[in-house]
Amino acid sequence: MQTYSLNGQWQCLPDENDIGIEDKWFLYDKIKDRNYHLIPLKIPNSFNLIDGYDLYEGVFWFFYEFELKNKVDFSNFDYQIKFKGSNYNTRVWLNGFFIGEHEGGFTPFKFLINDHLKSNRNYLVVRVDNTRDKDGIPSIYFDWFNWGGIYRDVDIIILNKNRFRDVRITTEILTRKSAKIHISYKVIGKIKFEWQIIDYYNNEIIENGKRTTVFNRDEFSIYINNPRLWSPQSPALYQLQIIDLSLMNKRNILFQSDFGIRKIEVRSGGLYLNKKKIKLKGVSLHEELLPYGRTIPYNKRNEDLQRIKKIGFNSVRTAHYPHDEALLEIADKLGLLILEEIPVYWDCNYKSRKTFKLAAKMLVNLIGRDYNHPSVIWWSVGNEIPTHKKECAKFIENLMILAKNHDSSRIVTYVSRKLTSDLMRRKGDVAALNTYFGWYFGVMKMLSLILDWIRTPVLNKPWIFTEFGAGAKFGYRHKGKNPPKFSEEYQLALLDHTIKTINSKEYFSGWFIWIFRDFKTILKNNTYQQGFNRKGIVGEKSTEKKLIYYHLPKILNKKRKKGFNTKFIGIILWIIFFPFSHFITTHLVTLITTNVDKKTYKRGIQRLLNPN
Ligand code: GCU
User: How many whole angstroms separate alpha carbon 262 and alpha carbon 259?
Assistant: First the structure.
């Protein structure tokens, strides 16, 4: 496989009145003759980084001319155009011909272009629309910035007619001294090949073999002795290489992928990595860094994960959508466990079959893209979704079944912000909880009892505290007692107390601070927030380390002094109050949350449009 990058200086044009289709902007001449004021933009990049378009939500058109290095050869090769990420709805034309359309902002997509690709000058036109869609994934309301445009790499992929697809590397630890590596794949055409396993550690080929001509599907297993297991402490990697033995392409590498030998499993109420009990201690991360938007340079992503590892965290939750695959490559090498999620977030149109199909496609694409990364241990199919609604419960349950069918080697669950009434949690491999006790509501001191209460309906599974946190405006300090909210001292006190409380609960197998870095959002607009969610342990400028940043290494493993054991009171309270909480959630909470979201969103737009 060869790739030809289309990253570079493109031209673009906003289409605020959405006239481009009707006006045939996909035809070269249409644009050239009209002398439109084209805006140069380096792709990949979000169009919200263009002056005057920072809040823009709508249609943008992109134009790019390119010529391939080598003459096209359709008898031996197929040519695809691949987008690694473009938000939200993307349509593509090549030399005036419609190539295809993709809905979804965070997973890769590609189209075959043999029919319209030319050896000399090619004219590529891309229309991207990040208008929010109630039937979309995510839907209208979400607490992150809606960066629009072609924000990840664009490549021409040149593929042998005879090639591999969906190569899956599944590892199994058989004994302390042996492991099995199972390779399954699909073949287009027919191939005769040699495979080899390279141990990164000493760069040696440790196993290799040949396979005679195969087509369609095939699989085989390799057994290795004294395997080096992958874990955060020792992220040992191997590489699978598949080499073409057909005459024409003597020893061309047809496929290669790093992988790690590791096993993540849930058993007897705990989480086990390589058969050892593990606690996840992590932080969530949005794919955003100013001034780059979502197009974060590789070294900056590396810096983020290095810092996260240095603080002592062993895992990262990629909120609330698939990040660029580069993040996983770094996590594989550094040794960080990754939780991945598709952006089924808050209130989506759970009654719509189209919306379900969209979510299902995103999930399958995500698993297909990241299956071979040892760092990835978890697929979440939704965040803070209204599972008390039957249609939502069904939607989520079906997505979890789908995820398990595509990958039974990883944890599958969804993330809930419900306290005591979410019985659906029983359907996930683990029970995941988001709650901002001591921030949005409640008194910190009550947390221990509340957790014992919340946990009651799911006693036999590990719990993961997927989100907790407090906002702090960098530099807002408070000396003395009772620090106010948004001060760095309040954030420190809340996170310190919460971490110690969770660490003292054996049924919690992990926790994730919301969030590593302050991020842009139109839903947060008070005097401290000003369009940012301020729950980061660092400010939006990564250099702004808040007080908690310095204390975390000491707090991570601390436990609350043994106080009064509230486990049984928690269970009793649950039994007494469940009927009410179920009623309240089913009827009142929905009403409140939806109206709050609507109002906050409208207010957010107003305030950002008229800051004074
Ligand atoms: C929720 C949600 C996050 C959001 C956070 C907050 O829990 O999952 O996306 O940013 O609350 O309000 O800070």
Answer: 9
